[in-house]
């Protein structure tokens, strides 16, 4: 391995260490308390080394949120591929989204700015809208199957996304006084009613 390749690998290793340290700190202390200094201390480098790899904390948060959206996208695709008809696909996709949110709270909070500023404002990637796109596709297919007006698919799927994201947000921000079973039941009933209404 040449000197250039060795330096490149070392640079990538430090970059990965920075992202891992930031995510680990967020899990223990929360996103709000994250700082470049704390990340530098965690990887046992000076702060300028962290700044060599990332312009600021926002750039680190954006990179981590991209990874979160990528992981979510993979879970949604798995759920979608398990079913053939759009009704079952819709239920599976919503369920996968719900499970991801609570299995990966730190990711979800960062991805959607829950209790903090949303990361990467104005810098959209394909995976950012994969859940909404899948909801739309299923909704459109169900509407078409029922012989309803396909022009309603966009509005309807957006309403469902808002309901699902709203339930998750309420539960994450007020999880002490709202039973998880109540919210999951509400979610299932909402999806069933949604499909019936199309």
Automatic annotation (TrEMBL):
SUPFAM superfamilies linked to this entry: Homeodomain-like, Tetracyclin repressor-like, C-terminal domain
DNA-binding region: 35-54
Keyword check for Transferase: no
PROSITE patterns, sorted: HTH_TETR_2
Keywords: DNA-binding, Transcription, Transcription regulation
All residue ranges annotated as the HTH tetR-type domain in the record: 12-72
PANTHER family in the record: ACREF/ENVCD OPERON REPRESSOR-RELATED, HTH TETR-TYPE DOMAIN-CONTAINING PROTEIN
Protein name: TetR/AcrR family transcriptional regulator
Origin species: Chryseobacterium zhengzhouense
